[in-house]
Amino acid sequence: MRPPRGPAWPLEPEAADLRRLIDACADYVVEHIDSLPRQPSFDVEGAGLVAASFDEPVPEEGRPIETILDRLRPAVAKSFTTAGPGYLAFIPGGGIPSAAVADLVACAVNRFVGVAAAAPALARIEAQAISWLAGLMGYPPGAGGILTSGGSLSNLIALVTARAARLPENFLNGTLYASEETHLSLFKAARTAGFPDRNVRRIAVDGRFRLRPDRLEAAVVSDRAQGRRPFFVVANVGTTNTGAIDPLPEILDIARRHELWVHADAAYGGFFRLIPEGAGRMPGVERCDSITLDPHKGLFLPYGTGCLLVRDPETLRRAHQGGAAYLQDVSAAEGAPNFTDLSPELSRDFRGLRLWLPIQLHGLRAFKEQIQEKLDLALWAYDELKDDPFFEMLDEPQLSIVAFTARPRGGDPDAFGAEVLRRVNARRRVFLSSSTIGGRYVLRICVLSFRTHAERVRDAVTALKEEAARLSEL
Ligand SMILES: Cc1ncc(COP(=O)(O)O)c(C=O)c1O
Questions:
Q1: pLDDT greater than 90 at residue 7
Q2: CA distance linking residue 321 with residue 324, whole number of Å
Q3: Closest ligand 1 atom, CA of 182?
Q4: Which of 88, 185, 300 to mutate for ligand 1's pocket (most ligand atoms within 8 Å of CB)?
Q5: What spacing in Å lies between the alpha carbon of 330 and ligand 1's midpoint?
Q6: pTM over 0.70
Q7: What integer pLDDT is reported at residue 1 of this predicted model?
Q8: How many CB atoms lie within 10 A of CB 104?
Q9: DSSP secondary structure, 249-318, as one string
């Protein structure tokens, strides 16, 4: 019998064709990044039509890359410009280009890092990057962790790890504690991990939106008296609404008295520890049992780069390690961990390169300077706005978020605030988002993109002042 013929349309391009493909994409990327400062801060007008243009049957025949990129351009254009300098909404990150290049390399070499035996040195690169992050958070040598797709997954893995470490197999008595300002992902994690809503205590915050330790301890004591099993408390290191940092030393003391696992959700705030000013604001983070960090926030990497750190990597292993006959050939390797033993994932992208390569290329100092600038810009915006008659600051920024309510001369402050936000965003120079805290409509400026500098924050402040003044004259 003759062996089967190879495909007529091979998926492996010739070297010259591959170079043309990469060049075409490189041209697109360079042109796009170059135009970012001139792009509107958002543009979703007619986005539905562009979205609908992608409804099509699966193409049987291939198309040239130029045609494909031409279709992609309007899809990218009709969106929030999350990578642009004017993006001050939610929690920005930016997406440094060197990380995108790292992804190209990682996907092109397509090595398997889920088990160390398959690529020991690459697994070591990823482990090294994780261990750098652990060191930056003040963890002792021997601490470890896992790179995830983001903060939500890190929080889930932390909870599952604590559940395995602190609770019996039947864990339904386990009770967990988090402030009212804790990110949604932790409440989702509780559900996903099998805890009914009644096992989750939302602890009141103080005037600066920080968890109240007295309320935490009272809840723990009362739960224990009722036969529940308190086991996990979240300490926020930078809440999403206002950037509040919970009182870590007090939380750690309570946790020690009651044998709670302390998980720091530092998804947004953790990287401020890279500079002395930030480190001073989060004493005790290094004593927490686990820490969620989002390099796609405070290290400006592209979306999809999260990290969970644990003081004791054995806890991660105990919660996740399993065996399977088909993995018997790759169960052990020297000098690098099996990442699949530390998280729910087996196959996944080589995330470590996206973190390691930019740090190699730029050096840590470049990141520290950026982080300092973000703190300074937020404080500057706060100073500019705090005496404005139309705004009332909620708090001095604890990190790089400025949160404030509107104060019209008459009428409904919430409606006034929402209209100011709409008008500011309509200028398309910056993009701000809002929240509701204690039933009040709150405007926010979150400075975290590496592309955001003084000029753009000044635009935001000017637009807020002008639009509020204009609106109050109507
Ligand atoms: C404090 C905090 N925790 C967790 C998350 C969830 O992170 P991710 O969006 O990466 O899943 C966020 C996201 O903004 C956050 O601000």
A1: no
A2: 10
A3: 1
A4: 185
A5: 34
A6: yes
A7: 85
A8: 14
A9: HHHHHHHHHHTPEEEEEETTTGGGGGSHHHHTTSTTGGGSSEEEE-HHHHT-PPSS-EEEEES-HHHHHH
Tell me the pLDDT tens digit for each residue of 97-132: 999 999 999 999 999 999 999 999 999 999 999 999
Residue 81 has pLDDT above 80, yes or no: yes
Q: What is the CATH number of domain 365-473?
A: 3.90.1150.170
Instruction: Quote the tokens at residue 330.
Output: 């790759």
Fold of 103-362: Aspartate Aminotransferase; domain 2 (3.40.640)
CA distance 384 to 367: 26
Which ligand 1 atom sits nearest the alpha carbon of residue 236? 1
356 Cα–ligand 1 center, Å: 22
Band the pLDDT of 134: cuts 50, 70, 90.
very high
Indicate if 365-473 has the same CATH topology as 103-362.
no
**Ligand 1 centroid from CA 57, angstroms:** 36
Q: What confidence score (pLDDT) does residue 8 get?
A: 81
Percent of the chain scored above 90 by pLDDT?
96
d(CA 404, CA 242): 9
* Cβ neighbours of residue 324 closer than 8 Å, sequence gap 6 or more: none
HEC profile for 80-115? ECCCCCCECCCCCCCCCHHHHHHHHHHHHHCCCCCC
Identify how many contiguous H helices and E strands the chain contains and give both numbers: 16, 11
Ligand 1 midpoint to CA 474 (Å): 39
Distance from Cα 10 to the centre of ligand 1, integer Å? 42
Instruction: Answer yes or no: is pLDDT of 210 > 90.
Output: yes
At 261, is the pLDDT very low, low, confident or very high (cuts 50, 70, 90)? Answer: very high
Q: Which residues line ligand 1 (CB under 6 A)?
A: 91, 150-152, 183, 185, 240, 265, 267-268, 294, 306
Q: Which atom of ligand 1 is nearest to the CA of 294?
A: 10
Ligand 1 mean position, distance from CA 155 (Å) = 9
Rounded to an integer, the average pLDDT of 24-39 is: 98
Q: Which of 294, 296, 433, 435 to mutate to test the pocket of ligand 1 (most atoms within 8 A of CB)?
A: 294
Mean pLDDT of the chain: 97
> What was the pLDDT predicted at 331?
80
Which residue bears the tokens 């020991």? 120
Q: Which atom of ligand 1 is closest in space to residue 239's alpha carbon? A: 1
* Cα-to-centroid distance, 183 and ligand 1 (Å): 7
Region 34-56: mean pLDDT is 98
Domain limits, the chain? 15-79, 103-362, 365-473
> Model confidence at 439, in pLDDT bands (50, 70, 90)?
very high
